[in-house]
Amino acid sequence: MTTPLISARTVTLGYSAPAADDLANYLRSSGIDRIALRGAIAITEPLRTAALAEIAQAIDGLLNISLAQVAVEGWCRYDKLLRAADRTRRGGSSEKVPLLEHEISHTYHPALEVYVDDQQVSRFEITVDISLRVLPLEATVRGGRLVELGPGDCTATVSIGTPDLGPILVRDHTFQTSRAFDLRRPITLSGPSPRTGTPRPR
Fold first, then answer.
1. Do strands 145-149 and 137-142 pair parallel, antiparallel, or not at all (unpaired)?
2. In terms of DSSP bridges, do strands 119-125 and 127-134 run parallel, antiparallel, or are they unpaired?
């Protein structure tokens, strides 16, 4: 049986969370509805419920990012891995690369727009922070691709918030690093994405 890959949504809501219902109930207590409806002429309970449901659905979609993607984008800035990928790509051999304890972060700031009767009543920013603290482990690189990860744990922390409210939902989860990757399809190590921070050894 294949273990589901771990995403930011897994960390915050779990594997079996409903689409957005539980998240909407949680957001109600955060006060985010006051920001979302601040331009509305009148705020009724049905309107508040509908707005919270829409915001929860939007946030739920934002969390659909795999932790493997975050880690690989960070590792593509890691010089030792890139050099090993280059050597094995040219020589067809394999190398084992020790990785020290390090941290990889990913932050983005999507904006949500809220409309009531086709009129925009607010536009506000959501901040999503994903941080991975990876304990020492060994990576195997072959033919320019990551093909295996040795034993090691990783702690993922996901924070959701707004500039006005600060963090409104913070969750963390510790798991075996290799569980976040399906290395039956080896991962090509290439240039970095500008969105993701360089791994920081600890």
1. antiparallel
2. unpaired
Domain range annotation of the chain: 68-189
- Give residue 15's pLDDT: 65
From residue 68, alpha-carbon distances to 80, 131, 149, 183 in Å are: 19, 12, 12, 10
Quick one: how many helices (H) and strands (E) in the chain? 6, 11
CB-side neighbour CA atoms (13 Å) of 7:
14
Q: CB of 105 within 8 A of CB of 198?
A: no
Beta bridge partner(s), residue 170 = 159
Q: How far apart are CA 68 and CA 104, in angstroms?
A: 11
Considering only CA atoms, which of 72, 66, 91, 100 is closest in space to residue 186? Answer: 72
Residue pLDDT, tens place only, 80-132: 999 999 999 988 789 999 999 999 999 989 999 999 888 899 999 999 999 99
